[in-house]
Design brief:
about 325 residues; alpha/beta; 2 domains; about 25% strand; rod-shaped; binds adenosine-5'-triphosphate; binds magnesium ion
């Protein structure tokens, strides 16, 4: 059983890898022309495909299977009628949450490719609609249908994190509505990308932490941002370095909890020598920073560990009056 589970996991992972950014419009067009050759002449096909609908993350082969199944079913449903229309529409929609009037839509808010496949064929009664996505379910004569079409469609749509819903009325027709999440850069994602751009600061920083790993990593990162950095491994040593050239530093960054002299005490002593120098104190999330109320300490900022170096750099830039 474990082996089987592992095989299934590997399989689905491999399948995921076939997924790629792709547009639905060309696949729909290809599938229409494939199905059209076998369709009766009295069926009109209307397509309204927005070329700017946007890309989804998907497998073109599987999605072609979806289209062909849906269009073939529609062609069958239209087959008995004297004339009829198959309309296929693709557009971009924004969903704001679940829609109460349609339980089959259970999607996160966001942007989706919305595909509707509508036919004016025979339609289905509710007791048929209920079962259409089940494997082996068919109303066709033996040898004419396997009943697998829509169950495969359903599986593929779910794999693409989409949904499929059906609305049908006997004698009027059937509409399938499909939603696929779009690979859109939302305003929020764009903002994140901007936030991740490297802040370029300048200035001479005194950086104190008793954790040498944090110290060397922080130094490297801050230097890559553009600062020059002097480090010290404890508060007492930090103060000694500061006293060698009190006017030489633009800002002090220090850990709170350190042996000999903690960051709080270091800041107090530094501010006594040089009032107004920007200071940033950080501490572990659960560490209690005792002493006076942080706001009354006179230092510029307090941050929690783990340190977000970009945030720290922005704080320094702000304190130094550099543009952020
Ligand atoms: N557009 C449609 N209009 C009316 N009934 C439909 C439509 N699409 C599907 N159905 C109903 O749903 C049933 C199941 O469809 P499904 O595609 O799963 O199997 P099938 O078409 O019967 O066989 P297969 O696709 O395997 O050849 C159909 O037999 C039919 O009764
Ligand atoms: Mg079918």
């Amino acid at each position: 059983a474990t082996k089987l589970v592992r095989q299934i996991l590997t399989f689905s992972r491999q399948e995921e890898q076939e997924f790629q950014p792709m547009e639905l419009q060309p696949i729909i067009e290809d599938s229409v022309s494939m199905v059209q050759t076998t369709m009766k002449k009295n069926i009109t096909i209307e397509t309204d495909l927005d070329p700017a609908c946007g890309a989804i993350h998907g497998d073109p082969t599987q999605l072609q299977q979806v289209m062909i199944n849906l269009f073939t079913n529609a062609a069958h449903a239209l087959g008995a009628e004297q004339s009829g229309t198959l309309s296929i529409k693709l557009k971009q929609v924004e969903l704001h949450g679940r829609k109460a009037d349609d339980q089959s839509i259970d999607l996160d808010p966001g942007f989706y490719a919305c595909l509707t496949v509508k036919d004016t064929g025979c339609g289905m009664p509710p007791e048929v609609q209920e079962h259409i996505f089940e494997p082996y379910f068919t109303t066709k004569k033996k040898g004419e249908g396997t009943g697998f079409g829509l169950s495969i469609v359903h599986g593929i749509v779910r794999k693409h994190r989409g949904t499929i819903a059906v609305a049908s009325e006997q004698g009027t027709g059937t509409t399938f509505t499909l939603y696929f999440p779009l690979l859109l850069e939302t305003a929020e994602q764009e903002q994140k990308a901007i936030d991740l751009s490297i802040p370029e600061g300048y200035g001479h920083l005194l950086f104190v932490d008793d954790d040498e790993a944090v110290l060397s990593m922080g130094r490297e990162i801050l230097e890559s941002f553009g600062y020059s950095v002097v480090t010290a491994t404890n508060g007492r040593r930090g103060f000694e370095i500061f006293m060698q050239n009190p006017e030489g530093f633009d800002a002090l960054i220090t850990d709170y909890s350190m042996p000999e002299m903690n960051g709080h005490e270091l800041i107090r002593q530094v501010l006594a020598i040089r009032q107004g120098i920007p200071t940033i104190l950080y501490s572990g999330y659960m560490e209690k920073v005792d002493g006076e109320d942080l706001k009354n300490l006179g230092h510029s900022a307090f941050m929690a560990k783990p340190i977000d170096w970009r945030e720290l750099s922005r704080t320094v830039q702000k304190a130094l009056g550099q543009e952020v």
